[in-house]
Design a protein that fits this description.
single chain; alpha/beta; Protocatechuate 4,5-dioxygenase, Chain B; six-stranded mixed sheet; two-stranded parallel ribbon; 8 strands; 33% helix
Length: 264
Amino acid sequence: MTESEATMPRQPTLFISHGGGPWPWIDDMRRDFERTAEWLTQLPSTLPERPKAILSVTSHWKAPHFAVSAAERPGMIYDYSGFPPHTYQITYPAPGAPEVARRVQQLVPDIIVDSARGFDHGTFVPLMLMYPDADIPVVSMSIRADYDPIAHARLGEGLRPLRDEGVLIVGSGLTYHNLRRFGPAAGPVAAAFEEWLSGAISDPDKRTDRLRRWEQAPGAREAHPSEDHLVPLMVVAGAAGEDRGQRAFVDTVWGIPMASYRFG
């Protein structure tokens, strides 16, 4: 860490419910997510300082081992289907940050470095709204395919020093992700599970243990038949240390509450 980095204010960690597919580029969906768009647009003004870089732990990059992208000019990954042709022409030309990837490798020695990984929509959707000028370097990080909550929390613990080095750690997922039961009928289940999550993250002393036992929460497996969109929360909670977590924002879209959380 340089002397200037040592004096940087500590960045919070964030879990963002990123919505459905390329919604900001589809008029009807943009109207549905209007409140989410407004919140994400205003979010940078609530940070203690403009980030030096962003580390995006994305639910849309699943790997056998934890991996981090060291691409200098990350390309685009259109990891959705059935959307209008123009949504496959979206660009988010933010630079990568190989030096941050190397720092991650120092902090988490067994991590895999991917020199080519680009931006999937778990990364470029929220960041396009937060930083539309694409002028902050972005590094993508995978989740691990076994979804082990403790392993993901420990990854976050290893990443914690980045917060004092100007790096904003963002987990991108959803508090409810059951595509077969998406609609107003699932609203009560989604709300009950989110209420449990909000309580679980609020106590730093009990947070890791409660998140480890997330399957015991009300409606847990109905909310997350597969927990790929949940485990980024484990990473940012691990990186939070003693910081209390709180619900920063919740939007209800298609009858489903989707919450985002902030630590610190």
